[in-house]
């Protein structure tokens, strides 16, 4: 976890170093596509992890008590829909912000 924190700190330093050390005559660099890529990748990756954990937990619960299949399936599908909607909302917000 510590290494991941160092990677993100280095990426942040590289993104902010470009405007900080720019000379006055050069054009402004548009970093919006970089932000879009990072934001969507982060949202999709974390939602994928959440969906995997939800399905894994449901599978484990079904293995312990197969009689609760109908209730667990309904709650799992609702939960997966909410998790997926987070990615779609992120995509919509990024798309609106770029336009």
**Helical stretch tally:** 3
Oligomer: single chain
User: How would a textbook summarize the main sheet?
Assistant: none
The CATH architecture name of the domain at 32-99 reads Up-down Bundle
Short overview:
The chain has 99 residues and is mostly helical. It contains 3 helices and no strands.
What characteristics describe this protein?
3 helices; mainly alpha; elongated; F1FO ATP Synthase; 99 residues
Describe the structure.
This protein has 3 helices and no strands. Helices cover 83% and strands 0% of the residues. It has 99 residues and is mostly helical. Helix 2 runs antiparallel to helix 3. It has a domain of 68 residues: F1F0 ATP synthase subunit C (F1FO ATP Synthase), CATH 1.20.20.10.
What's the SSE blueprint?
Elements: H1 2-20, H2 32-64, H3 69-98
């Amino acid at each position: 976890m510590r290494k991941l924190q160092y990677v993100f700190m280095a990426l942040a330093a590289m993104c902010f170093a470009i405007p900080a050390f720019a000379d006055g005559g050069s054009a402004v660099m548009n970093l919006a596509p970089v932000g879009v890529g990072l934001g969507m990748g982060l949202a999709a990756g974390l939602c994928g992890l959440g969906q995997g954990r939800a399905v894994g937990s449901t599978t484990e619960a079904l293995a312990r008590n197969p009689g609760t299949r109908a209730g667990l399936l309904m709650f799992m599908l609702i939960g997966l829909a909410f998790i997926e909607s987070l990615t779609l909302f992120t995509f919509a917000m990024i798309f609106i912000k770029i336009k």
